[in-house]
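Kindly inspect what follows.
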Amino acid sequence: MAKTTKRTQVRSVLGALYDKGAQRLDRTVGWHRLPTPLGVLVLIGLRSALRKRNLYDTSGQPATDLPPISGPSEENHTVRTADGTYNDLDDPRMGMAGSRFGRNVPIDRTHPEPRSQLLSPSPRLVSRALLTRDEFIPATSVNALVAAWLQFMIRDWFSHGKSPKDDPWEIPLPVDDPWPERPMRIMRTRPDPTAPPGSTLPPTYANTETHWWDASQIYGSTPEHQKFVRTGQDGKLRIAGNGLPAMPDDPDQDPRRVPGFWLGLLMMQTLFTLEHNAICDRLRAEYPNWSDEEIYQRARLINAALIAKIHTVEWTPAVISHPTTKLALRANWWGIAGERVHRRFGRISGSEIISGIPGSDTDHHGVPYALTEEFVAVYRMHPLVPDEFDLRAASDDQSLTSATMRNLAGAGAVDVALRLGLTDLLYSFGTAHPGLVTLHNFPRFLQEFQRPDGKLQDLAATDILRSRELGVPRYNEFRRLLRLAPAANFADLTDNAQWASEIEAVYDGDIERVDLTVGMYAERRPKGFAFSDTAFRIFILMASRRLNSDRFLTTAYTPAVYTKAGLDWIDDNTMASVLLRHYPALRHALDSVPNAFTPWTRPKG
C-alpha cells in the first residue's frame, strides 16, 4: 500500500511539472508555433491543467423543485433515456434535461455586474460600431456546411429556454439609431426554475436540453417528442411524403416557429433522420427478430456516436485547420496510435491518449458533468452565417436563384427545400464559403432579425448582453482565469490598428471592459483557425469532456451495447459517405475532397 501511495505521489508531482512546463511553453512560444509533435504534447498538458482548474460544479448549490426522474431499470444499462437520466448510473440526474449549466471559471467570479455596468457600453453600440458586416469576410478554407452543422449541434447541446415576457432589459438608444422602438428591449434569460429564492450565491441557469451528445435535436428530450418522430415500425423515424422530417400539427411544437430554424438546420436534420433509417435497415438485416424498440434504441446510439465522431475528426479540424489541432483532435477519437491501428487491432491500451476516448473508462475528472456557460459563450459564432446565398445546380453548377437569409429562415426554409431539392441545396452550401468569425462580419439579417412571434431582435447586441447577464467574465479576466496573458492595451489585443482604435473608442479607453466576444473576434488567430485561440481553450477542455463523461461513448461503447455492426458503421462512415448514401448525385463534387466541410469540387467546363 505504501509503495502504491508513493507511486501515486510521484505521478502526481511529475504530472504537475508536465502541466507547468506545457503552460510555460505555451505562454512563451505558443503551442501553434511549435513543431507538431511538441505542440500536441503541450496541448495534452494544457488540457490536464484545465481539467484540474477550470471545472466547477453548480449542481451542488441549494435547489428546489428538481425535475422528476423515473426509477432505475435494466434498460438503463444499454439505452439512452429521452431526458438524459441514468447516463451515470450512480448519479442519475447528471446531465439530464432541466439540469444546470456548470462553469469553467470559479463560481464566485460569476456574479452579474451591477446594472449600470452591465449595460456599459451599450450592447447596441457594440453591435453597430464593432460587429456590423460592412462587407462579407469569407472563411475560404471551409464551406458553408460548417455553419449549418454548428446550428445542428447547438440544437442538441443547449438551450436556456423561453425568456419571461415581462421585465426585459431596456437599452437606451441615441437619436441617430434607426431601431424602430425606444428603448431597445432584450428579453432576459429564463431564471433557473430549481434555484431557491433569496440566495446570495451567483445565479444559476438550467438547460432545457440534455447535456449529453445524444442527438436530441433529432429524437427530442421528452417521451412525447420521441413518440411523435417514430413510425413504430422497424425502429424508423418519420419522413413525410415530401422527403423532409414530419412536422407536428401543433403550432407550439412546429420547429418552423422556433427562433433559429433555417435551411441549414433543416438539411442536417433531414440528412441524419435518413441516416437513422439506413442504420435501421442494416440492423434489421443483421437481427431479423428484433423488435421496433430494440432497433430504434440501437440505431439512435449508433447515429449519435457517428455525429460525435464527425464533429470530432472532421468538422472541428476543418474550422481549426492547424497541423497540431488536426492531429490532436483525431487523437481524441483514435488516440495517438491512430485510425489504422484502431481498425486493425482495436484498442491497444486503456489510455485515452494512446487509444482514444471512445471505449476508455468514464471519467468526470472530479466534477459532475454539465455543459458550461463559458462553453455556450464561445460557441456564439453567428459570423459564420452569410447574408446571401447563390443556390446552384449540382449537375452543372448553373445558378438557380439567389436567396437571402430572410428567405431561408422559418417557413421559408421548407419552401426552398421543396422547390429546389436537397441535392442542389447541399451542393450550394458545399461550394460556398461561410463567414470568418471576426469583427465587422456579423450577419446584417441577424441584427434586424424578425422572430416568428413578430418581435424584432438584434442578435449581435443580444450576444453581448447574454455573456454579461450570465456572469461570463469579460475578455481580459476570462483570459486570466484560463492562465492566458491579458491584453495589455488595445494595440496588444489586435494587430489591426483601425480595429484597435475603434474598440478603444467604444470602451472609453478601458481595456478591462472589452467584452469576451469582441476580444475573441479581434485577436490574432493561429494559422488555419476560423475562430480565436481564446475560444479554443474551452474547446480543449470541453471537446474531450463531452466524450470522457458519457458512458455510452466510454465504458458502454462496446459490441454488447452497440452491436458489432453498429461499431463498424461508426468506423466506416464519414460526413461524405453519409451525404453520398442519401444524395448520390453529389459524388462528382465530393470524390476528390478529403473533408466534406472543405470546399467541394465544381464541375469543369
In short: The chain has a mean pLDDT of 94. Residues 114 and 126 are 19 Å apart (CA to CA). Strands lie at 169-171, 184-186, 388-392, 399-404, 449-450, 456-457.
